[in-house]
Amino acid sequence: MSLVQRLLQFQIGVSGDVDVAPQPIIPFATWAPDRAPFGSQAAINATNVIPTADGFRPLPDLVTQSSALAGRARGATAVQALAGEVYVYAADANKLYQIDVSETLTNVTGDYEEAAADAQIEWAQFGNTVLATHYDTPLQGATIGSGNFSDHITSSDKPQARHMAIIRDQVVLGDTQDDTDGQQPSRIWWSGLSDSSDFTPAATTLCDFQNIPDAGKVMKIVGGAEYGLVFMEHQVIRMSFVGSPLGYQLDSVDRRRGTPLSGSVIGHGRLVFYWSEEGAFVTDGTSSTPIGHGIVDRFFWDNFNLANQSRLFSAIDPVNKVVAWSFPGEGTSTAGEPNRIFFYNWADNKWSEGEVTTQLIFTGINAGLTLSELDDVSSSLGGLPFPLGSRAYQGGDKILAAFNGSNVYCQFTGSNLAATIDTGEFQPFRGQRSQVVSVRPFIDGGTITAAVASRIKVQDSVSFGSAASLNTSGLCPLLSEGRHHRVRCSVAAGGSWTHAQGVEIGAVGTGVT
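-> structure tokens emitted (513 positions)
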């Protein structure tokens, strides 16, 4: 009889051999705060981790990449010039900025006019030109990597717009205002063919505009090589190019729902993710599918600070097949600053969250290596594995990026953040109380601890006991009695680990019902 078994005999007052029963491994399933804790196979908590097929990966901390903007970041994008160089463009309320591969921040404001307090600045790349728009300034354009922004539209019609995207070879604006018709929140307006500066309607250029009735305001436009999607307040519209004389045909993809949150809409290939009033959805351009029902929908709306809904931003992390939404938490955010991130892995249909304070997140691009950084590869040009002009040194991979609370451009490339994962609530011995005596975490590194919360009735409050560290046998020795148990595994910040897969529980039945 082991020492643990003898100790348990004494503690629970039984004689003979005690059945210390290893339970089946409890895998770390998707985070699903909407589900009832008892009997759930989902994680009750999964903080500062990225969801994967077999559990979770760590979420790296932010690493600063530049000096600070003068004010809070209102929008950012990463673009790659035709020659391969990567630049980040960002905006605060009064200025536009360029950040180059050497992390030099340059004011390239030009003709940009002040943005309203709730404005998000949107961006698009048209060939070797980067465009920026918000409702209170003319459409701004600049050659990528060269010079200041200036008023981009040269035609007699000069609409201003909240939203913008590139469909085929045309710039499409949404929620517009102009000198003739004033404010037109349900209007989309597309430029001439292959001409981003011409917005005067003409049959020869196929430039035109159209109001979309009975669907509310235009909230976002997602571009594409074949068609685009227009997200309204109450519908999702497919915008397909049909040529002369109509230019575009508009068809409803979803008549039941649109989005109240323009910053929630983010596309990746043919998939576009968004939050409707019902919850999280994905559309492939033909229909919409719920991805948060019974998982995170209710939790999101309960915890989203609606007073600062313009500060919700989204981004794509293609390496991890994850879409991310940053937003201010209700009752937890300071001055409306986003302090929570929801992650959704579209390949494995799994969720997690992060507790990271940002001003916004966006899809960045790895900028590659500077000449000084090439010295770390080889001390001589002849020793480089590829020619000096090779794209291998120019970057181009998409990454998850952000601006932190100090107005500084950052990437999620730092040391791993402190992570916490709670299992669902389980009952090791049906019909009787039990004692959890050990937890074996299947986490492949870092400083790991485990704690257990036990209760007799599901009506009882939940309180975790003292955390136990991992011993040399790979166990966290614990002692917690109840009928229903849940386990919390924690990995300290800075730990080196790659996979958190689940836990194995050691438990003993007490014989008490």
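Residues 3-12 form the longest helix (10 residues).
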